[in-house]
Design brief:
By secondary structure, this protein is mainly alpha-helical. The chain is built from 21 helices and no strands. Helix 2 packs parallel to helix 6 (122-135) and helix 13 (299-326) packs antiparallel against helix 15 (343-357). The chain is globular, with a radius of gyration of 22 Å.
Length: 493
């Protein structure tokens, strides 16, 4: 089991590398361009390739193909695995090229659909349409990266795939800086995305070749490609529903105060930092390891893996949630408040961050629970959960958006994630988390979070800089755990 934790740490370290550069990227974008109608347009335009990315590069396809690739590697041969992966890359690339052709023909109509609140601003819509044309090819680059990353994960390599996004972020930082120097022209940020996608693909592909992958179409397309897409079909519905959840938020935000889309984006990026650095890493390794356990028919190991993943999330995400809620304003201030990002922007972004954080635990658990179903080639159950989340999101958006504005959109997404999480947990086959067995662990974590939250808030009120406040808060939390008898390494071993 220590091997599982080691792989989580490797994946987490890679994601941490990417997130650090992602944070620097967001600081640069906020400082250079602020929060305005132009940044709203960029974030909507960038969301469009990322919408399709959820279909092809993560979630649906990646979760479906890893079990097949694992079977080919373990039960067939290296040549069969290479043939399967090559066939899948060719098939998916053809689909994406068709999407790129369509979006290049109708960029204005597509952008208007995503930000209808700006429909009367023809200049802004035209600028957003130009951005979409430049940004869309990134979808092809990142999708091939994702498929090769699944191959590398099964080869035991987690850091390289997880850290590859750092290259994209570095390219975007350079693009943002050039755009700022040239009259605050945000188009250079789009060029940075394009260049970063190319470099990211070269980085991952080179390591996949080093690990033994060789493109192979001898004997024609692998039959498992058709089986993969057959499995993906119900999962695509689930991903589509999840993306519709985000679309609902963006569409509603476009009718609010100018900059609301940007406030939600900046807050979500900080919210994603702990989620991506740890919860996604746990989910990624869980998918790979449970796929292997299922291939071997080892139900006990499968359940132990889920238990370890759930406990790891409780230990890390509860204090992360506490810290983000208590210190939202000073965190946003120190990260974004410079140059073109005003103090009013800080307050608006901080309120969104607090509301997003309400759902951090639920999103973290979803990363694990959904991967459990995917590893067992059950794509239908997560779709049902996603549909429940969609309905909940729409209902709570309608309830919360008037009294809370853009912060209500963030809170509605967290509540929806909680309902989805509960549904998947109830439907999980042959597994139930033993709350009674772990009740002492959970109480001790809660006590440690209480002391950490109290200490950090008191130090902030006393005027201490936020960076030492966060460091002291971490020390208080881990010392509190130790004093209550919890040894994190032992708890996760």
């Amino acid at each position: 089991m220590s091997g599982f934790i080691y792989k989580v740490l490797k994946s987490g370290l890679g994601i941490f590398t990417s997130r650090i550069f992602g944070l620097i990227r967001d600081v640069a974008v906020a400082g250079f361009f602020g929060a305005s109608g132009v940044t709203d347009a960029f974030f909507v335009a960038f969301a469009i390739p990322n919408l399709f990315r959820a279909f092809f590069a993560e979630g649906a396809l990646s979760s479906a193909f890893v079990p097949f690739l694992s079977d080919n590697m373990s039960l067939k041969s290296r040549q069969a695995a290479d043939n399967y992966l090559t066939s899948l890359i060719v098939a998916v690339s053809g689909m994406i090229c068709a999407i790129l052709f369509f979006t290049t023909l109708f960029p204005t109509q597509i952008v208007t659909m995503f930000m209808p609140g700006y429909a009367d601003d023809a200049d802004l819509i035209a600028k957003a349409a130009s951005m979409v044309v430049v940004l869309m090819p990134y979808l092809l680059f990142v999708t091939i990266c994702a498929l090769l990353s699944g191959y590398l994960n099964l080869k035991g390599s987690y850091y390289i795939p997880s850290s590859s996004t750092a290259i994209l972020n570095i390219a975007m930082i350079v693009g943002a800086w050039i755009g700022f120097q040239r009259g605050i022209d945000i188009m250079y940020l789009c060029y940075g995305v394009f260049a970063g996608g190319v470099l990211q693909l070269v980085y991952v592909m080179s390591y996949a070749f080093y690990k033994g992958f060789r493109p192979n179409l001898k004997g024609g397309y692998s039959r498992d490609v058709r089986k993969t897409f057959y499995l993906v079909i119900p999962s695509l519905a689930g991903v589509g529903i999840n993306q519709l959840n985000f679309m609902v938020g963006r569409i509603l935000a476009s009718f609010l105060t100018v900059g609301s889309i940007s406030y939600l984006y900046y807050a979500n990026r900080l919210f994603q930092f702990p989620l991506g650095m740890f919860a996604v890493a746990v989910g990624t390794v869980t998918l790979t390891e449970i796929s292997r356990a299922n291939t071997e028919g080892d139900l006990s190991r499968r359940n132990n893996l889920i238990n370890k993943a759930v406990n790891a999330i409780f230990i890390i995400m509860l204090p992360a949630s506490t810290g983000l809620i208590v210190l939202a304003y000073p965190i946003i201030e120190i990260v974004y408040a410079r140059m073109n990002f005003s103090l009013s922007d800080v307050g608006a972004t901080a309120s969104a961050l607090q509301m997003y954080t309400v759902g951090l635990m639920f999103y973290s658990m979803l990363n694990v629970f959904s991967r459990v179903f995917h590893s067992e080639k059950d794509m239908k159950t997560p779709v049902k959960g996603a549909f429940i989340a969609l309905i909940a999101n729409i209902v709570f958006n309608l309830i919360l958006i008037k009294p809370m504005g853009h912060a209500g959109i963030a809170l509605a997404s967290g509540i929806a994630a909680g309902m989805n999480c509960l549904y998947l947990y109830v439907k999980m086959r042959d597994y139930k988390y033993d709350f009674m067995k772990n009740i002492k662990l959970l109480i001790k974590i809660a006590i440690a979070c209480f002391f950490m939250g109290g200490a950090t808030y008191s130090l902030f009120l006393a005027g201490l800089n936020i960076i030492p406040v966060i460091l002291i808060g971490c020390i208080v939390y881990f010392v509190s755990l130790r004093l209550t008898g919890i040894h994190i390494r032992s708890a996760l071993r």
